[in-house]
Amino acid sequence: MLLQKVCKLILRLTGWKSTGSLVTDPKIIFVGVPHTSGWDFVMSWIYYKSLGGRANILIKREFFFWPVGYFLKKMGGIPIDRSKGANVIRQIIHQFNEREYMHLAITPEGTRKRTTKWKAGFHTIARTVGIPVYLVTFDWGCKEMTIWGKFELTDDAKADIRRLKDFFKEKGVQGKHPENFTTEY
């Protein structure tokens, strides 16, 4: 409860607004956009904690060394093996199947660099595990973070990615580094 209040204070002091409410489903995927800076994780973590939530993110296992690894795990970090032969999607599906509660935040761009090729791993995971996807924006232009609601998936991942891009384009969100974000196909 104290951490939640501290996070609300940090948001207020830094000029961020938060809209949306805590999602109560025990297992979900948040698709968050735009991802142009490492600060996206920090501010999003503060935002979700300010709502009283506990979210997870995927981090390369190489970052889980002492003492950094301890804090990353406390913040919801899940170590992922991205070495040759490692199947990241299979690792995440396993994590969802092993846990009773998991709110996983994923950025479909998969990089902080400008890219038109958004990844559909979230789609495969959500459809395989049978969990909902919620859309989230962290808009550095107006300093507002929002959980927009559930995004219904179809059998067509490519079409769903196009719908995602159209949604985020309509919202006009801006990354911390705007030149690194695009909703182009």
Indicate the topology.
Layout: H1 2-13, E1 17-19, E2 27-33, H2 39-50, E3 56-60, H3 68-74, E4 77-80, H4 88-98, E5 102-106, H5 121-129, E6 133-139, E7 144-151, H6 157-171
Parallel strand pairs: 1-7, 2-5, 2-6, 3-4, 3-5
Antiparallel strand pairs: 6-7
How far the N terminus sits from the C terminus, by CA atoms, comes to: 43 Å
For the sheet with most strands, the description reads: 7 strands, mixed
Mean pLDDT: 94
- Which percent range describes the beta-strand content? 15-25%
Strand order of the largest sheet: 1-7-6-2-5-3-4
The helicity comes to 25-40%
Give me the secondary-structure category.
alpha/beta
What is the fold-level CATH name, i.e. the topology?
Rossmann fold
The overall strand count is 7
| Low-pLDDT segments, ≥5 res | none
- Indicate the overall shape: globular
Q: What's the CATH architecture? A: 3-Layer(aba) Sandwich
Report the radius of gyration as a whole number of Å.
16 Å
CATH class: Alpha Beta
- As for the number of domains, it is 1
What's the total helix number? 6
Helix/strand order, N-terminal first: HEEHEHEHEHEEH
Describe this structure in words.
Residues 29-141 form the Phospholipid/glycerol acyltransferase domain. Keywords: Acyltransferase, Transferase. Helix content is 36%, strand content 21%. By secondary structure, the protein is α/β, with parallel strands linked by helices. Helix 1 packs across helix 2 (39-50) and helix 4 (88-98) runs parallel beside helix 5. The radius of gyration is 16 Å and the shape is globular. The protein contains 6 helices and 7 strands. The mean pLDDT is 94. The chain has a single domain (2-169), classed as 3-Layer(aba) Sandwich (Rossmann fold), CATH 3.40.50. The protein has a 7-stranded mixed sheet, sandwiched between helices. It has helices spanning 2-13, 39-50, 68-74, 88-98, 121-129, 157-171; strands at 17-19, 27-33, 56-60, 77-80, 102-106, 133-139, 144-151.
